[in-house]
Structure formats: C-alpha cells, structure tokens
Amino acid sequence: MNCALTEPWCNPSVLSSVVSWRWSPVLVRVLVLQAAWALAGGQVRYSVEEPLGGTVVGRLAQDLGLEAGEAEARRLRLVAQGRRASVEVSGASGALVVSSRLDREELCGKSAPCALRLEVLVERPLRVFHVELEVTDINDNAPVFRVDEEALNIAESSVPGSRFPLEGASDADIGANAQLSYTLSPSEYFSLDQKGNNDQSASLGLILIKALDRETNPVHRLVLTASDGGRPSLTGTMELVISVLDANDNAPQFNQSVYKVKVLEGSELGTLLITLSATDPDEGINSDIIYLFGKHVSTKVKEMFTIDENKGEIRIQDKLDYEERESYEIPVEARDKGSPPLSGHCKVLLELLDVNDNAPEVSVTSLSVPVPEDASVGTVVALLSVSDRDSGANGRVRCWVWPASPFGLEATFSGSYSLVLREALDRERVSEYEVEVRAEDGGAPPLRAGAGCAAVSDVNDNAPAFAQAVYTDPDVGTNSVQNYLLSPNRHFALDLKGFQSGSKLLELVLQQPLDREQSALQQLVLTAVDGGDPPKSGTAQISVRVVDTNDNPPAFDRSTYTVSLLENSLPGTLVVKLNASDPDEGSNGDVIYSFGSYTPQKVRQLFSVDPHSGEVRVNGTLDYEEASFYEIYVQATDQGPVSLAGHCKVLVNIVDANDNVPEVQLTSLYSPVPEDARSGTVVALMSVTDQDSGLNKQVSLRIPPGLPFALNSFKNSYTLVTQGKLDHEKAAAYNITVTATDSGSPPLSSQKVIHVEISDINDNPPRFEEPVYSVYIPENNPLGAFLCTIKATDPDVAKNAYVSYSLLDGEIEGLPVASYVSIKPDSGNMYAVRSFDYETLREFQVTVQAQDAGIPPLSSTVTVYIYVVDENDHAPQILYPTSTNTSAALEMIPRSAYAGYLVTKIIAIDGDSGQNAWLFFYLVQTSDPGLFRIELHTGEIRTTRKLGEDSTPTFNLTVEVRDNGEPSMSSSVSITIAVVDRVSKIIPDRRRHFKSPSNYSEVTLYLIIALSAISFVFLFTIIGLTIIKCYRYSLYGCSCCAGCCTVRERSASSHTMMVCAVTESEKAADGRNREWLITFVLDHGIHFTSCQDMLDLLHDLQKSLREPKHPNPDWRYSASLRAGMQSAVHMEEAGVLRGGPAGPDQQWPTVSSATAEPEGGEVSPPVGAGVNSNSWTFKFGPGNSKQGGPGELPDKFIIPGSPAIISIRQEPPNSQIDKSDFITFGKKEETKKKKKKKKGNKTQEKKEKGNSTTENSDQ
Fold this sequence. Notes:
Blueprint: H1 12-22, E1 30-38, E2 41-49, E3 56-58, H2 60-63, H3 70-73, E4 77-78, E5 87-89, E6 96-98, H4 104-108, E7 115-122, E8 127-136, E9 149-155, E10 163-166, E11 181-184, E12 190-195, E13 203-208, E14 219-227, E15 235-245, E16 253-254, E17 258-264, E18 272-275, E19 278-279, E20 289-293, H5 299-304, E21 305-307, E22 313-316, E23 327-336, E24 343-353, E25 361-367, E26 380-387, E27 397-402, E28 407-413, E29 416-421, E30 435-441, E31 448-453, E32 481-486, E33 492-495, H6 497-500, E34 507-510, E35 521-530, E36 537-545, E37 555-556, E38 560-566, E39 574-577, E40 580-581, E41 591-595, H7 601-606, E42 607-609, E43 615-618, E44 629-638, E45 645-655, E46 663-669, E47 673-674, E48 682-689, E49 699-702, E50 709-714, E51 717-722, E52 733-742, E53 749-759, E54 767-768, E55 772-778, E56 786-789, E57 792-793, E58 803-807, E59 811-812, E60 815-816, E61 821-823, E62 829-832, E63 843-852, E64 859-869, E65 877-880, E66 889-894, E67 902-905, E68 907-909, E69 919-926, E70 932-934, E71 940-943, E72 954-963, E73 970-980, ...
Parallel strand pairs: 2-8, 9-15, 17-24, 38-45, 47-53, 55-64, 66-73
Antiparallel strand pairs: 1-2, 3-6, 4-7, 5-6, 7-8, 10-13, 11-14, 12-13, 14-15, 16-19, 18-22, 20-23, 21-22, 23-24, 25-26, 26-29, 27-30, 28-29, 30-31, 32-35, 33-34, 35-36, 37-40, 39-43, 41-44, 42-43, 44-45, 46-48, 48-51, 49-52, 50-51, 52-53, 54-57, 56-62, 58-63, 59-60, 61-62, 63-64, 65-68, 67-71, ...
Helix pairs in contact: 9-14
Membrane topology: Single-pass type I membrane protein
Region (Disordered): 1136-1259
Main location: membrane
C-alpha cells in the first residue's frame, strides 16, 4: 500500500485489516493494492480474481477512513452504472461486496488490465470517493474453434510439401491462459505446421507429406486439438474432413488391346461392326471418355468406317469390297476429358468375307486374224485372260468355246488361255467364224461371262502402257524388317508385341512420369533394322511434346504480408499488391486472386482483391475504434481443370486517426440543488470516453467561466460541484455546457448540456409593483364598488411565491379600516364597503400587507391613498338676494342711475368643489331686456344705459345660477327692481335674505376659512415667485429684477401652472420699465423646465406681431381646447373676456402664426420668438372686428393645441396687481385620471401630497 502514515486512511488498523483480508475465509484472494487521496476525493484500489456473487472484496468503509457505524449513518453507497451494479456496499458493515459474478471477459474482453472505476458517495457532507476494482483473469475459458468441423479440399495432384492454412482457435482469457498449442491426430499423409508465437495470431498450416491417391482413399478425417497454457490446461477440438479432389492421373483402359471382327463384303451401310468400351477410375470429367480413331489411322479407314465418340460403336459408312481389300486394321483411342486428356488405345482387326458378287471376266489380250487358210493345227489365234475377283470357289473359273468350231482353248498358266486351231481350215467352205469364249465361276449360284473373236485384221494404233508408274519389289523373307530400336531414354520404351504378332503398329510406352517444368520436349530416334546380310536400317525422328498438367499450385512471394494503414482511408486506397507465380503453362498457370475461405465476411466488406492484379484495396470505411487489426486470408488459384491454390496472409494494422469526438456520459445528476447549498456540493458525476488511442484519447473537460460551478477530475471521471452562492431568483436553472476536448491534432471536441435546477427557499418577501397606490373613486359610489388591484410578486416559487393580501388594523375617523374598504386575500382586489361622500371625507389611506406562504412566512406592506372625487350632486345655493314662492326679492335703483350702475350682486355658493362649484349667472327673464345685464362670473347686475324719466317704476328679473357640473344644476331667484327717485338707507328684510342664523354662521365660517387659506397661499406664492425669479434669472445671466418664474406641479389635477414675470429692457414712454406677469396653465404631458424655455418660445413668435394679421373666419375652439380653458375669475362662455375698466367686451383671442390650421387655426410659433417684440398675432372669434395693432397684447390669450391660458398684465412697477387674476384650476376630467408617481420614500410622497393639498386649497 502506497500512502503516507500521516494520512488517516493509513493508520495501523487499516493496514492490519488489509493484511487480515489475505487470510479471510473467502476463497477468492483479495489484494488491496493502493489507497490514496486525489484532489477533492480519494481512491482505493482492490484486485480480485473474477469473483462469484457474494464475495467480499474489501472493508471499504474502513479503508476510506470512516468510523464504525458511520458508513450507514452517512449513507455510504455506490453510484450504479452498467456492470457497476454487480458491486454494492453493505449498509451495515460498509464492506464492498460482489452481488453477481464478475466475468472479466464480459467486462473488458481482451483488454488488460481490467478495472472497474467506481464512484462512492457519502452524505453529510456529500463527498465523492473513487474506488478501482481490478478483475484479474482465471483460466475459465477453453479454446474454441469457429466451427466444430472444417472441410478441406485438396487436389490429388498436390505435391508433397504443399501447405494448407488452417484457422486456429480463440481463447477469451488473456496472458498465459490464452497461449495456445496445437496437435494433430496421427496421419501418414499430413503433419501440422505452426509458425510464430503460441498465441492466437500464430500461423497454422497443414503439410502434405505423401502424395494423395483419390482412387485409393478419397476422404481423410483428422482431429485438431488446441490447448491453452492455463493450469490446468483446457482444450478444444475441431475435426478436419479432407476431401481429395480428383486429378486426371489415370488413362482410360479398354477391355482388350486387339479386337477381331469378320464381316461380309457388301454389307449394308451403317452396319455395326463392334462396340468398344473403356473405363477410367478417375471421377468427374476426368472419367468422361470419348472414342475416336487413332492418330495413325489411314484415310481409307476413315472413309470406310465411323466411330461414335460417346458410345464407342464402329459402323460401316462405305461399301466393303473383298476384291479391293480383304482386311482392315483400325486403331481406336479412348480419351478422357481431363486436362490434359489421357488416352487408352486398342486395335480392331476387320476381316472381310468374300461373296460371289463378281462374274468371271474374259478378255482378249491378243488376236491374230485373219487366219490363213493353210494355217497348221495348233496355230494360236488369240490369247485370252480369264479372271474372277472373287476368291475360293467363287473365284474358280471354267472356260469353253461356243459354239463348236475348229478352235479350242488351251490353258497356258493360271488365268491365261490360248485360242488354238484344232482342225484345218477351208476358206471356201467357211470363210469366217464367230467364236465366243465362255467362262463360269464355281460360286453358288455361278456367274458367267463371255468374249467373242472375229477374224478381222488388226491395226497397230496403241502403244504399250504399264499399270503403274513405279513398281517396287520389297524385300521379303529375312531381308524384310526384322526389328525396331529406340534411342536410350529413361521415360520411354518400345512395346514390340504387336509387331511380333504381325501388326505394323508399334507402341511407345511411358515408363517414368514426365515433368513439363523440367523438360517440355523429348527427342527420340526410332530405328528399323532388316534381317539381310549385311543388315540395313532406317531411322525416324520422334518428338514427344510433354503436355502440361496442373501439378503446381501458385506460390506467393511471402507467406505473410504486414502493412499499416491509416483509418478512414478512402475507398480504393491500395493496401498491398500481392504476387503469386505458377510454373505451369496455359490455363494451369493463369492465377486468379481471391479471399481465402477463412476470411470473415466483415473483412470481405472492408477490402477487395483484384482477381487479376492481386491488388488489395480498401472497399469500406476503416474504423480503428471498431478494429485495430485485420487478418486477410488471400488465395491464388490457377485455372487448371482441378484448380490448385496457394495461400498467404495479409496483416493490416490500422493506424488511429483523431476521428472520434470525446463523449461525456452523465453518470449521476443530483438536481434540483437547494439555493442555500454550500460551496463544493456535488451536483453531477460524469465520465468521459474517447474511442481513439494515444494522445487522441487524452481528454480534458471545461465549463464556461462565470458560473457558480466547478469541475473536479479523477482520471476519466469528473464531478461537477457548486462554487459560490446560488440564487434561485437570479437563475432558477442552469444549462451548463460541458466541453470535452481531446489532445489530437487537430483536436476534436463535443459538448453536453447538463440541466441543473436550483430549488427555492423562502428568502424573498413579496414586493409590490408600486411603492404607493393612489385610488380615485367618485363619491356616491355603490356598495362593493371596485377600487383597484393591489399586486405584489414574490420571486420565490411554489408556496414560497403564493401571496395573500390583508388590511392592517387601523382607524379612519374613529372607525376601523374594515368598515371602509375590503380586500380579497387571493387576488388583491380592493372594494369599497360603504358609499363615500366627498363633502364628508375627501381622502384617507389604508395599509395593505402581502404575505407569502413560506415557512417562515415573509411579508411587506404598502400604503394605499384613496381620494374621493367630487360629483355634481349639489345645486347652487343663492344666499343673496332671496325670494320665496310668494314674493320676489326687492332691490331699488335710483332713477338717476347711470349706465353700469351696480344694481345688486347675486351671492351664491355650491356645496361641490372644483369645476362643479364654478358658478355662472344668467338673466333668464327681464321685463326690459336691454336695460340690465349680469356679469357671468360675479353675478353683478348692472344697468346698460341710463334710466329715463319715463321708465317704469318696477322691473321684474329672474336670475338663474348654474354650476359647471355634468350635467349642470341650477337655482333661480326672482328680483323686483324698484325705481325710486332717491335711494335711502334701506334695511333689507332679513326674513327674505336669511333662512336661519345657523345657516349664516356656517356659511360665514366657510368663507372665512376660504379667504384665509387663499390669502396665505397668495402670500407664499409671491414670496416664492420672488425667490425663484432671482434664482432663475441668475442662471441665464439676468438681473434679479429682470424677471422671475415659478413652476408648480399639481398632483391631483395633473396640470402645471407656470407664472413668469418679465421686465422689458426697453422703457415705456413715461420712462418706466414695463413689467409683464404671465401665467401659464399647462396640461399633463406639456413640460417646460424653466420660464426661460417658455420665453424662448415666445421670442420665436415675435415676428408675427410686426404686421397685423387678418382674422380667421373659421376660428373655433376645439373640444380639447374648450375642455382646457380654466379660470376662477375671468372665464367667459365662448371665450369672451372682460376688457379694461372702460373698454368694451371682447372675445378671448388665441395666439398663432399667420398660417390658418384646422380646429381654430392652431399652429406652433416660430422658433426663437420672444415677448419683447412685435411677433405675436392674436385672433378673435367670428363676428368680432376688433384686431390688435402691432405689438399690442391682450390681457388674456391661449396657445392653440394646448390647454394653457396665458394672462398678461402691464402694470406700473409699484402698482398692486390683483393676484386672483392668475389663479387657475385644473379640468374636471384630468382630476379623474390616475397619476403614476415615481418611486420614493413615503416621507417624500406625503410631502408631495401635502403640496398638492395646499395647491388645491389655493385654487
């Protein structure tokens, strides 16, 4: 064991436990080889010989340094993966136990060493340890042949020494257990040859030690035994069934060498003479026999006879004539179809039997006529020749002279007769004789012939002629040929048996086998010697050409070729060019290359062999990871009738290329991970594999930077651990891309995405979407009216993010909050519990709490401001004058009243607020329509002209007071105006003017409060304006007295009021500087950061005032503009404003450029215009001819497109300005809008709320 003694796992108890395991009762020897720590984890190494199920491998818990009982408490366990499931940890003892048999061959195949890398986990805290279990080999696998019986075909003509490759056995074990040796059962024909080491790559072959004879033994059965090197040794066997392939080594043989046949001459054509039969002990085509005439047969024989080549039948094909030839000698050859073919010979002696088919022939060879009368007896008159071509009795001829005459026949020699005179002649008696010589043979029946002679003188007109050109008279007897001699030769001899029996045919006999490869041509000399004295001889040259037989198999240059080839080589790449030679000739020497029978099908798919060139090329895709080594068995086969083959083996070593990307396997994933997990918590276990080898197999892993995770490595195992703080709300899950890169050139890489979820803990309280909620609800709302939705979100998940809403306890005007509003716990919808009255309660606030469902729960609160919006639910109340249903209010006017005389002033109030409280006064009925008028806003009734002397004493008026609500409400009062000559001090009738003292005290209180508030606001406004004026103008380089402005924003009505005071640099005619005080009321969304911005806009319009502009007859107020016109004092219906004290009424003008626009001609002013120049153009409503001159400004105007009302007053520096002229109010519609406030603390919000309340009070 290699470890430091200071380490806890190397304490003596651990070491002693390791030693004690050597002598444990377990039968399997277990060795603890190493225990060491690496990086974040440790490693323990065990070695065991292919254990059975239940085998205890080692005390894992103790070797890891765990105390007794700690293994079960900390849940010591293995991470299961594949075959790792066959090993487990005993929970109680912490021992490493084999649950099912571990087979080294199944785990690792032929790889050595075979080690299982296990990941061991312990909890509290979670840690990973690496355990390596080496499984060593035992001899548990016997050698196995691919097949139990192997069939071999070996040609009979194979020469001794021929080698035939055999496929060896395989052994799944490794090392010495896989070292194989082979033995062969005894055989007189074969032996075993083994080349190379005694491993599975050794070359195994069968050697022929004795020539085979198929005809003697066609099949040989042998047993090949493979034994491994284990102890004890295991064996495997395979039976070799060797079939001897026939070679054409046997010539056909006839039953007899000479056949004798007799046949009658003149037999019919096609007559069967004889059927020959020959046998051949070979098989196949080597035993197929054809019959044909021998090489030396004469042409005459071929003409006279035919032979059936398949049946051996000899038949007559021409007329046989005994007289032409008495006998025939027919040589016959029986030839097999082998290559080369072999022949057997015989001789057919045909003897013809004569038949009487020829009549005697009588011919006159010589005739001497005329015969002298005095010729003596015995005189030869003619010579006759008599012959008969038949033989025997058929050829014996009897002759006579017919008719009787003085002539007779005398035989001179065989076949020759003389016609002689037997009696004296007497010419005078008989002057001429006709003599016929008749001949008759002895056949049965006999045939006759005759010839006549006439005494006619002969004419010598023919020269003698010989029957043939040359007559040879061969020697006979002992002088004829008596012997034949052959030149000395070890292969051939003469057979003279036929010659000695009278045949002219000699036989050349082969005594020893021929070898064409050694001598293709044999030259012989045949000598014929006669028996004369001295003897004479003749010679003939015999050339024997040795025909090739396929007796030599092709032979390769080498028995084994070794090549290296890069994987992924393209199809068609040349692997090796093989060369095999065959000394035979012709087709026997033509070599064809092919895969051997032992070449697996997979190899045949990956490689190809050119049958003619012997080039081995790549045919498929070579993958080093699939196979790093290939054995290709190639055979070279000739094209002989019985093909012979030579064999070689091509060993192809595949060179690895970096063509496989690393693969990352996720062994275990511990997800989700709590967001409060400590740094170093194991998240995932991974292993990486690369099917390449060498540097191509070395792999490194990495993850993107910036993640709260890290990788720890141990060999090819990796752990993904946390690093840093996790936050579920920032990232609920991580897709961690693990990149594996090998060390190849170029390097290859792959990626695997690991999805790690972060589990939530309740660490976030609910958060409201708004820091403060403002709700506007019209008064007189129904019960249960929806106010708003309070929305809070919790970034946590599940129950930690479930938010419920509630109202915090509190009181509003002495009553609990729940009596005013309610809120739904699940949705946050807030409802009104009662109907609100603006005049009673204008605003209040409640606190809403949002709480999640986590453990423990977290909560937060938000303030909700509820504003009650006024509705027009109060009609105007006329305080003065008052009238009843029975009497009108009485007012008096002197008869001397001038035009504009104030008759009375209608005093009215409205219980509503805002524009609902804006009051307008109208004369709805008068007895003299042209005499009185009433101010729209003030309610002052004045005379329009001076009363005449003849005026009626009383006038009846009806005044209606309307508010500005939607719809508007009104009240009216009837007034009787009495004309008196003199107005004295009149005490009004209190009964008409006042209903009750309590009402007047209440109204008075309201007026006092309102006036006091307005006074204070006005005072603070003047002070503020002065301060802002100095500050603002100091920013633009102006003096403090040059002008000032203030910007006040109203939160409730969403309007901005800007008051700008401007002092012109040019002095007026009286020598004083003119001062302008301009008030702007800007709608929501229109902003100026300072008065200077507004003044810059006015400067842009100054050029438009230099020339008078014609009014726009189509001028009118737009709907939006009409809604934006606001004033508490100077607003007139249809835009009519009051002029100066002595000036006439005029319409409220608008400011614009010279270009008319739709909706009242509203345009934007030119850029750069200002107020101190004549650049403004003011337009009045239709029907008014008043136009201002250049540079003349009205006291009120508006800017089209904006609801702003601009008030301009030119006053002396020390004059007192009516500040109420510049007080404006926001629109009713705008007050109903919800204004979204910026986030801020509650103090600032309350301060802004206070400012808004103050502004409302001011207005």
